[in-house]
Amino acid sequence: MNIVLIFLITIFSVSLFFYGKSKTKTISIKDNIKLNALPKFYGYYLVLWCSIPALVFLLVWSLFEPVIIKSIIIETAANQGAIFSDKNEANLIYEKIKAIHLGTYFGDIDSILRESALAYAKFINLFTNSKVVLIFGIIIASIIYSLKKIKNNNKARDDVEVILKGLLFVSSLIAILTTLGIIFSLLFESIKFFSVINVFDYLFGTNWSPQRAFVRDASSITAAEFEELKDAFGFIPLIAGTSFIAFIAMLVAVPIGLFSGIYMAEYASIKVRRISKPIIEILAGIPTVVYGFFAALTVGPFFRQVGENLGLTVSSESALAAGLIMGIMIIPYVSSLSDDVINSVPQSLRDGSYAVGATKSETIKQVVIPAALPGIIGSVLLAVSRAIGETMIVVMAAGLAANLTINPLESTTTITTQIVMILVGDQEFDSPKTQSAFALGLTLFIATLILNYIAQRAVKKYREKYD
Amino acid sequence: MSNIKIKSKNLNVYYGDKQALFDVNLDLNEKEVTALIGPSGCGKSTFIRCINRMNDVIDICKVTGNIEMDGMNINDKDLDVVSLRERVGMVFQKPNPFPKSIYDNISYGPKIHGKGETKSELDQIVENSLKKSALWEEVKDRLDEPGTSLSGGQQQRLCIARAISVNPEVILMDEPCSALDPIATAKIEELIDELKKTYTIVIVTHSMAQAVRVSQKTGFFHLGKLIEVGKTEKIFKNPDNKMTQDYITGRFG
């Protein structure tokens, strides 16, 4: 139904555009009036007036219709004699009624349910009809209003400008509000988690085993269970594993990325640059899951083989394999960012260095790199925050056991991996185990936020110096 | 008559297909200031960049002809550019101190060339260079501050100090005062007068008055050709060429 309505609104709008355009044109020619705007702006004006109020109304209606119908139906069912003690049972009954209406309910249907289903059908019909009527009413009203406006030769160009500005504002508002919504949902769920688990037990605990938290209801924990829970959510092994893998990744990505950035910016001829830069950037376009199975299926077993030949025990899921592949994934970021900052070091500095007789590598080492250092540090920090947030590679290649280890050949785990493990499959949304995922998410979010902030400050400071 | 330090014969420079200098024959005298004047894009800067081979930095640039310093062919492919630039210093249009301390800005060149093995020798070089560029008194208490914290005129004198820190024989100056105010300019001109006792100086300038004030010899370039060269007094009072006359009286350029 909604699709049909949207289609109708579109057709109305498009035909109004041509109508308004030609109408104003003929009027202006016939009566020799100087229009305040080009004819097409009158067309746009009509289109915006015809479509926006109707679409906004449709959106608001669709948001509230189910809520209103639900409360009416639940009330009707209660009047019919249905018994439910809390919200969950009421929801269950409502779902049953809906299923009966749609013909997908296969349980026993008693008279209460049947009556309610009939009432439901009635209300749905009523709501749909009134929606259609109201929308047409709105369309007609706004068409009449806008046609009257353009007959008076209003400043359609300025008015279109105002309406568009409003649209753009609303779009950015939505972007900001959704971000805020995500942050708050993280925050509230984390607060629930921290009301059960002490913040300090979480932050400084050295043992991570959320599977032990089988407690159903957070409010009815016994003292013994509480003791048990206390050391099931220790954050230390996760942050240690995360930092360790990120560190290995940086060991790979920073030197290679930086050196390739220097080569691209300082040595490569235009021709080489034009070919090789896109090739490096292709690396950035490979989906991380592909890196992930490369790490899990090729690199991991390879390391194990090599380790066995050398007489070492290497776990087939190792921090080394995950870190190495993650490092390769990050190379293009470091490379292209440092290429950019090195490129923006002014040529005059290089000239100054050449002029006292420095060679190219001396100039790069002693003048260009120090000048670009804040930007390079910024790019490395951005890469670090990517490494910390990376999920797929570590899920596939680093393992799941939260070992507190500094042996790169053993398996270890990261924050992101644990979030995935906790939220995959069936879970209860009010158990501390599930809520711990939100706490992890919040911690991760804060960590990357701080890193990004420092990185952007560094990059900005650098820009100010030379622009 | 002083000795000829640098001698160019039929010097041609090309940027890709475009020829920037046409058969330039110009002699620069030792321990004298030679000013190069002419409208923008006439090849003055291109000419001085031939003297320390700075044009090597530009990929598409090609230099033919002969340019000699003390009988040594500067254009020789096998010439060690590093040691050439040690002997021919350069100061640029815009002050370009490195993002390092004042001290490191000056000690950079000597360190690269292995001059000043010990700290005290380096200190001495830094002090001497700053004294020669008349900056010592202003900065002696803050040598570890960044070079970029100085004022524009001070920065330019810092760059001059940097150029003389490796003890060159020739100093090339590419419009050294164009980014400076009149007071800073006066200081630099004073400094040039002092420096010419020790160094051979070539200065590119857009200011006729400056050429008159600082130079003994002047060359006028137009569209890549050296139109006229001679004693500064003569060029500005009684030029042989009509075009020179027109340029210095401000009829074009």
In short:
The complex is a heterodimer of chains A (467) and B (253). By secondary structure, chain A is mostly helical.
Describe the structure.
The complex is a heterodimer of chains A (467) and B (253). Chain A is mainly alpha-helical. Chain A has 2 domains: 2-154, no CATH class; 236-466, Orthogonal Bundle (MetI-like fold). In chain A, 79% of the residues lie in helices and 0% in strands. In chain A, helix 2 runs antiparallel to helix 4 (111-151), helix 5 packs across helix 16 and helix 8 (236-267) runs antiparallel to helix 13. The mean pLDDT of chain A is 85. By secondary structure, chain B is α/β, with parallel strands linked by helices. Helix content of chain B is 36%, strand content 26%. Chain B has helices spanning 44-51, 81-87, 102-112, 119-132, 136-139, 152-164, 182-195, 208-214, 232-237, 242-248; strands at residues 4-15, 18-29, 33-37, 61-69, 72-73, 88-91, 170-174, 200-204, 217-222, 225-231. Chain B has a 6-stranded mixed beta sheet with strand order 6-7-8-3-9-10, sandwiched between helices. A 4-stranded antiparallel beta sheet of chain B has the order 2-1-4-5, covered by helices on one side. The longest helix of chain B is centred in the middle third of the chain and has 14 residues, at 119-132. The radius of gyration of chain B is 18 Å and the shape is globular. The model of chain B has no long low-confidence stretch (mean pLDDT 90). Chain A binds chain B through residues 269, 346, 348-359, 362, 366-367, 370-371, 465, and chain B through 52, 54, 57, 59, 81-86, 89-90, 92, 94, 96-100, 108-109, 112-113, 148, 159, 162-163, 165-166.
